[in-house]
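input
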Amino acid sequence: QVQLVESGGGLVQAGGSLRLSCAVSGRTISNFAMGWFRQAPGKEREFVASISRSGGSTYYADSVKGRATISRDNAKNTVYLQMSSLKPEDTAVYCCAADWGLTTRQRAYEYDYWGQGTQVTVSS
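output
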């Protein structure tokens, strides 16, 4: 069974940085395109970033473009989301997701497996 476990969230001041990790077990992540989504209280889940199976393609939401970098380390079976210049509006639960496809995906329904999420809180 495929399991995804996020870590790296926490409380950070506006303007700060965080690196989120998503460790995958049950299958090697080279089988998956990967993505990050977030959900703030009272809001719908929002796409953040995705990376293709090869790692050669990435895609970002406009809200984080230039401030976020998604990467993958297949040897560690882990995907990362580096975020900088954090804003209070980045506060949310961040979840990673895995898709059996090859390319980057932006829609939640396209993903097959999900983690439980890690809380990111940005104080002003």
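quick obs: The longest strand covers residues 18-25.
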